[in-house]
Amino acid sequence: MGTALSEAIRRAEPGSAAAAQKRRDRRWFEYKRAIPWTWTAVLGVTVWILFFGLWEIASTRGWVNALFMPPPHQVLRTLYAMLVEQSFLSDVLVSIYRIVVSFLLACAVAIPIGVLMGCFRVVDAFFNPFVAAWRYLPAPSFIPLLLMWFGAGEGSKLALLFIGVVFFLATLVMDHTRAVRTELIETSMTLGANRVQILLTVVVPAVLPNILISMRQMLAVSWTYLVIAEIVAATTGIGAVMMRGQRFLHVDEIMAGILVIGLLGLLFDFLFRLAHRSLFPYLPRGSS
After folding, report:
1. What are the DSSP calls for 135-203, one per residue?
2. Domains and CATH numbers, the chain
3. Which of 23, 74, 253, 258 could tie 70 with a disulfide, CB 3.0–4.6 Å?
4. pLDDT tens, 61-83?
5. d(Cα 68, Cα 62) in Å, to the nearest integer?
6. Confidence of residue 39 (pLDDT cuts 50, 70, 90)
């Protein structure tokens, strides 16, 4: 009797385990568990449909004042007219130019300093008090000085975008560099590598994926400073167009500018994700 019962339990266990696994597969919420790409696409589209749907309903049914919050179809119609009939496309290109140039300059300064601060305590002791202090100073507070130093041209706008990114990026790169496994450095020293060789062939390759992630994060911050940089003595750029819309109470033009900034941010974010997956295919998909 005992043997038969044990055999019955043994035969039932695989089926029970499979059933339990199947039940887990049906669960929607699992900690850090990957989901199919179809779910990702559907959920990502659904949230935007709900957002624009609620916005359209609120505007057309009078829940909000349509003068100050025009419906999405009116904003899209205005955006089309701005691109086709006006010079808004050139303003978009000017804003992209300012973002790209200022961001590349910030990366050229922040990444080497951040890597050296993360590697060598003497460099950290020298730069960190300075960088840490500047991180807490709001970039817009420098606008009067930048206008006096660089005038109302491109220099002041690029400098503001540069200041808004460089110190935070240096700190992020420093933290990621410090997180490089000590065993890698000690092994390289055991094999006879000098400081420069360890830096270029061990530390930099190890921290490069996280540097790209930090660049992606700080590029989003750069876009948030764009309108601030372009509302001061500017005649071109998305921010300048939005300020003209505010002056004449063209809320649809302001929202069209916000929509374009959001779309450009998504595009640049996608390009960074694509670069991360292409340059570091050995890393898990969820690491970028």
Report:
1. HTS-GGGGHHHHHHHHTTSHHHHHHHHHHHHHHHHHHHHHHHHHTS-HHHHHHHHHTT--HHHHIIIII
2. 87-287 (1.10.3720.10)
3. 74
4. 888 888 888 999 999 999 999 99
5. 12
6. confident
